[in-house]
Amino acid sequence: MAVHSSDPAAVREFREPVTPAGRALLDLLAGHFQQIRDEAEEHDRNSTMLVDVFTGLQKDGVLGATVPVELGGLGVDSLYDVCLALMSVAEADASTALALHMQLSRGLTLTHEWRHGGDTARSLAERLLRPMASGEAVVCTTVKDPGGGRVVTRLTPAEDGGWVLSGRKILASMAPIATHFVVSARAEPAEGPHRSAAAMLTRQTPGLTVTDRWDGLGMRSSGSVDIVLDECPIAAGDVFLRGPVGERDDATLAGQTVSSITMLGIYTGIAQAARDFTVHALRRRGTPGAATRTLVTEIEARLYALRTTVAATLASADYYNSEFTGDPAERGRRMMFDFQRAKLMVNHLAPEIVNNCLTVIGGASYVASNPLSRYYRDVRAGAFMHPFTYPDAVDYLSDTTFDHAG
Amino acid sequence: MAVHSSDPAAVREFREPVTPAGRALLDLLAGHFQQIRDEAEEHDRNSTMLVDVFTGLQKDGVLGATVPVELGGLGVDSLYDVCLALMSVAEADASTALALHMQLSRGLTLTHEWRHGGDTARSLAERLLRPMASGEAVVCTTVKDPGGGRVVTRLTPAEDGGWVLSGRKILASMAPIATHFVVSARAEPAEGPHRSAAAMLTRQTPGLTVTDRWDGLGMRSSGSVDIVLDECPIAAGDVFLRGPVGERDDATLAGQTVSSITMLGIYTGIAQAARDFTVHALRRRGTPGAATRTLVTEIEARLYALRTTVAATLASADYYNSEFTGDPAERGRRMMFDFQRAKLMVNHLAPEIVNNCLTVIGGASYVASNPLSRYYRDVRAGAFMHPFTYPDAVDYLSDTTFDHAG
Amino acid sequence: MAVHSSDPAAVREFREPVTPAGRALLDLLAGHFQQIRDEAEEHDRNSTMLVDVFTGLQKDGVLGATVPVELGGLGVDSLYDVCLALMSVAEADASTALALHMQLSRGLTLTHEWRHGGDTARSLAERLLRPMASGEAVVCTTVKDPGGGRVVTRLTPAEDGGWVLSGRKILASMAPIATHFVVSARAEPAEGPHRSAAAMLTRQTPGLTVTDRWDGLGMRSSGSVDIVLDECPIAAGDVFLRGPVGERDDATLAGQTVSSITMLGIYTGIAQAARDFTVHALRRRGTPGAATRTLVTEIEARLYALRTTVAATLASADYYNSEFTGDPAERGRRMMFDFQRAKLMVNHLAPEIVNNCLTVIGGASYVASNPLSRYYRDVRAGAFMHPFTYPDAVDYLSDTTFDHAG
Amino acid sequence: MAVHSSDPAAVREFREPVTPAGRALLDLLAGHFQQIRDEAEEHDRNSTMLVDVFTGLQKDGVLGATVPVELGGLGVDSLYDVCLALMSVAEADASTALALHMQLSRGLTLTHEWRHGGDTARSLAERLLRPMASGEAVVCTTVKDPGGGRVVTRLTPAEDGGWVLSGRKILASMAPIATHFVVSARAEPAEGPHRSAAAMLTRQTPGLTVTDRWDGLGMRSSGSVDIVLDECPIAAGDVFLRGPVGERDDATLAGQTVSSITMLGIYTGIAQAARDFTVHALRRRGTPGAATRTLVTEIEARLYALRTTVAATLASADYYNSEFTGDPAERGRRMMFDFQRAKLMVNHLAPEIVNNCLTVIGGASYVASNPLSRYYRDVRAGAFMHPFTYPDAVDYLSDTTFDHAG
């Protein structure tokens, strides 16, 4: 990761990328912000993805941003820079950033498989990364089964030596435009223990159905629909097989962190957009009153803490992510502990900022066409992003504190 | 006001009405809750009023609840009981409660005109109250002009000795089904100072247009549309004329309090509904974790403070409202000071409760069909209800504290 | 309980007593406030009780305020009025209010024993209540054993048919001036199960030592010292024996509520005193700035919610306390559930008010001689008052919600 | 500034110094922590400085840490590292850190004078820096006049061409052991405008009196006493003369930031110490309950945001402090805007952390000998540290936002 930081203060406040590839990604994205802003409200209303925007991003190579240069991508490998890029998109539309996160974070984790995985994994990763670089492959990764914790998605052995995949996934953002799916499932081989796994499918795979419209409180343009899997045939080489189910391996916390940590930028971007909209609106109104001045000050202070905390967390994640010399379990724990502490604060600070913005703008913010009403709905998704929910985070963080931390 | 309170503890916690008429109103309402609950989601989605529900309420005499018995109404004259009734409706659907508030609070203020006003006001009030009692008159009162503070709605003298009304009003809840409108305006007579006024129009009045659908972040079934007034002819006897514009008269704070204070029940009802939904859902889930137990405790404590504070405020408002022996300006200031302090806390506590409910329920609450996602949007309207916004309340309350309070 | 309430609004905001005896108590106390205010700082510094004040209260009959008229006391039997009286003392000095609480709440619970207890309990209660009325008996009640939950204070059978009491109690407020002690202990009779008990001792009882100075963060003049009990002889008739240890009896929650609920007034009084000091100081300073106006508004709103919530809780406690017709276990649970929800909010709101006061006053409030610096320390005791601590309250309230509440 | 950072993640979380000189300073300090911890409680109680500790720090060269190597000091020039050093001292005793801050921040600003000032300033700075390096000079800088904003300390022309200094300063931390004083004053020359100035005095200067004990709510061992100045003779060369009074020069915001920003470490250190004490105590207690787990999680998350925000702010301050190529006014505004936003969040987060610690530890934390009771008092000083108070910060930050920020 080539580091480039003209202005260290800007980097500390999450205002500048840290790698040339990150800079290039931001420059590519900049050409799309106006369109995203223009289309955001209508798609939010209709709960549809900004398909035209993604077509444009595809043409510009943005969908291959995190694919290694050797495989034809932009080679963005800094989590900090990916998070910053998602923040800048989220300032225009958080739903679009959430959908884009799918593709970019998949690039990051597939690159890890390609560099460090076993033969099957390397090959499979390369078969996905190359078309991602060209924009041919748009990869939706699904993690969540319906029903609150039960595993319903399973890989069972097929007669031809491959697998059969059945089950259902929810909240599969970007699925409406995806060409490929990476589906987490429990592999139940004929012999040996059940194992964690992820199967790759193309959209044409028999038995795969992408359901209609996602209808959420917010993030309505993210295309977070369900995927139904009805005896889909999967070739043996199209499965990433991991360790036995139920076996705790803290080293895997590193990959989980990489998959999700860049989403922190999305909620930071919503808060920044809310602040900007509010300050600009207030400037047109004339002398602000006492409460407005006080709340704007609180908005500024919280936004500063939010941005610096996220910047520090992502910079540290980049460091750990490139540092393989120590104990992998300890490395995994550190990455997740940082991530979860930051996530918890993001989910305190970002909604507070948005809320204060509505308060100072007043009734005008309560009209559906006012951007603040969208921010108010979108920002609340932060608490539910993977992993963990607040109740699970309390269990995780308090256990960590009492067990491990200094 | 005949007081009836079988269980003082229940009254203190805002769980029982304080008058027999209030009891009767609650009993009438109880027959409609299931229908309101059943229809709430769809109408929220479509931004349409629950018209069938209002037809039912009309048949049952609910729309005349606050009309004096002598004029054919139920004679509910307790602000506490009206607020409690609106809370119970809001537990099923806050939008419907907001629309109903229009009719019930108008009954209260017209009754005041009928009992204490001058000849013109008494006559006009009676002409409205009698058909309200029978359900023939559904009266939408509009207060707010567009454009942030400027007055745009004016009564100018007509050649026939009456008036001509022109301008525009926003957020006129219940307008889609209203038969009559009471429109606040600035009367600009040929001679003498400009005066505050309120003009009465029927829906058939030439020049009156009720605009289409209100499209808000929440409270979407409240029918809070705009009213356009284009040279509407108004008879001289159809106008309530008040004091000169710009002349401060703190006695009028009493009427403003009566008009709006019962809305506190709406936001209390949303918080209660969120808590009930959440506790019932959690009971089905098995042993709650640490964060869930902690947040449920905070929900219960806040809800208790919310209900007892609202109960005390409304009981005091009833007392002041029936107590005319002292200085009217002082009485007005006390009513508004209590109301605004309570309103500010309602707008802290109710959204915190709803927010905690989403946090413990998790991602399921983020689906549009989950009631919590509606509560999250609806409860945010509390900060914008008339009078005052938070910035205005800070000016009002801090001035009051430094000028008058002990 | 003869109810008297000239101004219902004042009662709802915890500004007026509800019984004539309560009115009389407040009038008696009023003569002592100046002295308490004058002496508070020095005694706080030295961690000594305001002994002269208590001598004066004794002369005026205040120490017998809650003793029935038939036994020579003032006959204050309203928890609301006792709480209001403690609030008014706490506005001058919270430590003195905490010490006085000992005597007044003991009067309430002994009166209950005297009216409803068995023969031994009635006789013992009367032997304490009569000298309390005259001011001869100053009764310190001790509940807490050292060491976090273990029982270390025990009554074992003596050869003469009485008991021997050994152990240690902490946080025995008012002990330095007490003439009598009521010490909770585990009675371990020769036969039958261990039982909860409370033993009465005079200060002259052999083996009883009152330790020196209590040195706390705050509440430093409350005399909350330790009591050491080294084989103290106790007559059989000087023990209140209750049910078997470990047997859950929710009816006892009523007595626990009565013992402690009036302490809510102490923290309300601190918050009120902080607000008054602050508003008066700000009035002398000239035009307040934006933050000051905003925080003063928040102070006023929180204080209003605090006072109305406490008023409602105490009024309900009075109602339940005089209402014996239902299920005693259910009555106990209701009293405690109300009390604990109110206590939790008192411990959120009162410290927030005091904290905001320091913020607007600035550095001047940080000098030890400034009353706000004492309020800041004293108000923090609220979270630790009996029963429960915050962690225990979360367990209690969440269990109650999931088990019993609607 | 030679940068050294073995572990970037640790630097981002404010756990490692960034320069070798900073490392050396931390190593020197480490030898004193045990003594500071051992003596903190008693000196807090007596409101006396830890004089023996300062003697030890003097011997070790710590008092010359921020003096350039060329002048005999350690040459610590990183604000980040000074702040980190003060944090580590504050974890043992915040008062001692506050006193030490006086000497270390004076070294930083005198070094700036020595490198960039005019002839008089350079010479005067060197005359102070050399004995600071050797530990002979202990320099107390005083900024604050009594009386809320009025200037009472003045330099008037003396007959000998020098000056006469009269007035009074408050909150002069470390004064009890100071050998020299740098006193801000208004210079009122015979001709020309009044100017901002700072006069240097030795302790032996006639007319200078250091008053007795400072008696504060907290920070009681910081020696923050008053200085009385009664016609003290000052040589012409012993005065730093700055620009005309009342002339706004945003470039000076840089120096003001340098003087005070490292104090952020003090309040971060208190929060860290409270967290560590609490977690260690809880580990000994067995399985934590629901509220404890939830609050410990909140403590960890807030502490993480606090540390990363402070780290980012100090790192940026170091960057700006070494970067002189741009507009000095813009540079000053950036430094102060960052500092004040961070300070506001420090003053939200640190007291919340300490407060949560008391809540989970319970009544034991309320005893004066428990460290948490000291942290609770000390941490509240953060809101009052120079510049600005909260009300002033709201004015400053909201003005900045509406005037300058993006």
UniProtKB/TrEMBL annotation, chains A, B, C, D:
Acyl-CoA dehydrogenase C-terminal domain mapped to chain residues: 267-383
GO molecular function: acyl-CoA dehydrogenase activity; flavin adenine dinucleotide binding
Domain called Acyl-CoA dehydrogenase/oxidase N-terminal: residue spans: 35-136
UniProt lineage: Bacteria, Bacillati, Actinomycetota, Actinomycetes, Streptosporangiales
SUPFAM superfamilies: Acyl-CoA dehydrogenase C-terminal domain-like (SSF47203), Acyl-CoA dehydrogenase NM domain-like (SSF56645)
PANTHER family: ACYL-COA DEHYDROGENASE, ACYL-COA DEHYDROGENASE YDBM-RELATED
Pfam families: Acyl-CoA_dh_2, Acyl-CoA_dh_M, Acyl-CoA_dh_N
Signal peptide: none
Domain spans labelled Acyl-CoA oxidase/dehydrogenase middle: 149-232
CDD domains: ACAD
Cited InterPro entries: Acyl-CoA_DH_C, Acyl-CoA_Oxase/DH_mid-dom, Acyl-CoA_Oxase/DH_mid-dom_sf, AcylCo_DH-like_C, AcylCoA_DH/ox_N, AcylCoA_DH/ox_N_sf, AcylCoA_DH/oxidase_NM_dom_sf
Protein's name according to its UniProt entry: Acyl-CoA dehydrogenase
Source species: Actinomadura craniellae
UniProt keyword annotations, A-Z: Flavoprotein, Oxidoreductase
